[in-house]
Amino acid sequence: MRGKLGAVIVGLGVLGASALATGSASSHGYISQPPSRQALCAEGTVSDCGDIQYEPQSVEGPKGFPETGPPDGAICSGGNSRFAQLDDPRGGQWPATQLTGGQTYDFTWTFTARHATTDFEYFVSNDSYDPTKPLTRAELQPQPFLTVPYDGEPPSSDTVTQQGTVPTGLTGKHLILAVWNIADTGNAFYACSDVQF
User: Where is the signal peptide (predicted)?
Assistant: First the structure.
């Protein structure tokens, strides 16, 4: 009896380890530069963030943005109601990173798990953007200003920097939406970074 019980315990342990390994192989990541809203929550710069402060890497939603993906008003949370604090404009008071149009900038992703990737896309808000209201598609320029193709490969390390040129012609408070499109699932990861031109 003791031998059978031991075999069952070992079997359950192997099964549990396999489940954990499978779970940790899923893709997770967020923009750390310029600091995304979830990064600001995780580092404690912004309070009253709910669950996102513990898992900034988990803003996952349907891919296909802007044609599909998260609904208007829930883009920054990836359409995930657990992270609705990311869609709250907080009266336009999210801390913003100073940028100058035309400058070269190093956009940095932090990953807790890497996964096969189609590409990374970066969108910026247009002149209709109202920082005191939840983000809608109509407030974003329709095409990404930067696309970084990965052709199905995973990111090479736990931190990846992608250099791009910041769009010109914008003034005041704006928002950059970064989208990490996963190659072998129907999802993408979303991160909103508040910026000041």
Answer: 1-21
